[in-house]
């Protein structure tokens, strides 16, 4: 029995040494191996979006190769009903330097443990339920929860508008998803003893106007993210400023408003709109147009125009950020702002350590539409 235990311990030591040596050799290799474990199919919306994301990865790797950063990509289709443990049996899986995926929460733990064993960086690009980032130093979690984004948005509002008259406009939208934000913001305003006004989109103009200050700038918060409600608010404000020229108005909006930018851009500029977000898709930027041209030439079709953010651009930005970082810093890359060598087209990244675990993306910004028809990004 003692001989058996000694043999078992020896084999364990040899296996650990073998894995360690393989890891060292892998990171000393001049070619970065990029793995993708996502639903890559056309059977449903998840698959179609991830195919677009993967196409962005491929375009980024092609550009990186022309810059002298050598890469090899290996992709696995991991749909919702797949057992990722079967995928991980592929001998190529352990050879990767970085793996993007998975999409579904039930697969995260298996892949995270695998990446920890074989010293592979793991990028979770989209929303998941789980806490792997808190306990696995190989994990990079891009997604930020709605609760976290609400907290940051409320903090940005309090910092940005200290001398403004805050006005909450009720749009009577029973299906709104913004109740948690407006409730949280009002609670914080109460806590710091800042007055604010409440009004309703259906309130007659004479009473509606009473909510606005003529002695200090006003900042508006509406309790709906939807286009019809926003259109009605703009119409109401147009009537207000006609009757009260010179009144100062800003608006604090929502990420969904980007979808209406094509139609409401003039109003965004007119009413000094701020949108809290983790990304910005600038359709008229030269670099965006160049990417979209390359995407169409490569795949014979455009990115899905309903995607917000654009998944092809997201895949491109993620890949440029991580592969450039790994090429410069190797296995010690942590994804911090000081290590970043990529100017994002759409999706900025900035990671910080979560305790003794992995790294969480903390990028947050306000996109500000200025009255002079320009745009500024206020990064936190």
Q: Can you put this structure into words, describing what you see?
A:
With 380 residues, the protein is an alpha/beta fold. The radius of gyration is 25 Å and the shape is elongated. The N and C termini lie far apart (61 Å). It has helices spanning 2-27, 45-66, 84-87, 108-117, 146-160, 179-191, 205-209, 227-243, 261-270, 286-299, 311-329, and strands spanning 32-38, 71-77, 98-100, 121-124, 139-141, 165-170, 196-200, 218-222, 249-252, 273-277, 351-353, 359-361, 365-369, 375-379. Helix 4 links the parallel strand 3 (98-100) and strand 4 (121-124). The model is unreliable at 7-22 (pLDDT under 50). The longest helix is centred in the N-terminal third of the chain and has 26 residues, at 2-27. The strands form two sheets. It has a seven-stranded mixed sheet, with helices on both faces. Strands 7-6-8-9-10-13-14 form a seven-stranded mixed sheet.
Count of DSSP strands? 14
- So what's the overall shape? elongated
Largest sheet: 7 strands, mixed
State the helical fraction: 40-55%
Which consecutive residue ranges, at least 5 long each, have pLDDT under 50? 7-22
Give the amount of beta strand, in percent. 15-25%
- Give the CA-CA distance, first to last residue: 61 Å
* N-to-C SSE string, H for helix and E for strand: HEHEHEHEEHEHEHEHEHEHHEEEE
How many helices? The count is 11
Mean pLDDT: 93
Strand order of the largest sheet: 2-1-3-4-5-12-11
Helix/strand/pairing class, anyone? alpha/beta
């Amino acid at each position: 029995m003692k001989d058996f235990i000694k043999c078992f311990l020896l084999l364990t030591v040899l296996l650990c040494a073998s894995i360690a040596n393989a890891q060292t050799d892998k990171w000393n290799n001049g070619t970065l191996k990029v793995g993708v474990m996502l639903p890559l199919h056309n059977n449903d919306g998840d698959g179609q979006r991830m195919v677009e994301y993967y196409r962005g990865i491929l375009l980024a790797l092609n550009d990186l190769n022309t810059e002298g950063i050598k890469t090899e990509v290996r992709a696995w289709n991991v749909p919702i009903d797949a057992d990722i443990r079967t995928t991980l049996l592929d001998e190529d899986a352990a050879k990767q330097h970085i793996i993007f995926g998975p999409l579904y929460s039930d697969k995260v733990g298996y892949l995270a443990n695998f990446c920890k064993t074989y010293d592979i960086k793991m990028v979770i690009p989209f929303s998941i339920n789980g806490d792997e980032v808190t306990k696995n130093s190989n994990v990079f979690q891009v997604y930020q929860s709605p609760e976290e984004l609400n907290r940051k948005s409320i903090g940005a509002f309090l910092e940005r508008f200290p001398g403004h008259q805050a006005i909450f406009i009720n749009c009577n939208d029973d299906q709104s998803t913004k109740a948690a934000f407006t409730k949280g913001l009002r609670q914080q305003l109460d806590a710091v003893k800042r007055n604010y006004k409440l009004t309703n989109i259906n309130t007659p103009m004479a009473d509606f106007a009473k909510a606005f200050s003529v002695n200090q700038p006003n900042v508006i918060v509406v309790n709906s993210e939807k286009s019809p409600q926003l259109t009605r608010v703009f119409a109401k404000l147009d009537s207000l400023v006609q009757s009260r020229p010179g009144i100062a108005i800003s608006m604090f909006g929502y990420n969904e408003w980007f979808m209406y930018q094509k139609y409401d851009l003039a109003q965004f500029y007119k009413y000094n709109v701020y949108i809290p977000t983790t990304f910005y898709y600038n359709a008229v930027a030269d670099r965006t147009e160049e990417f979209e041209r390359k995407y169409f030439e490569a795949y014979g079709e455009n990115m899905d125009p309903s995607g917000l953010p654009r998944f092809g651009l997201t895949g491109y930005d993620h890949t440029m950020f991580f592969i450039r970082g790994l090429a410069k810093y190797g296995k010690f890359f942590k994804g911090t702002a000081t290590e970043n060598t990529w100017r994002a087209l759409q999706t900025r990244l900035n990671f910080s350590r979560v305790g003794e675990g992995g790294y969480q993306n903390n990028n947050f910004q306000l996109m500000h539409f200025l009255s002079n028809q320009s745009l500024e990004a206020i990064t936190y």
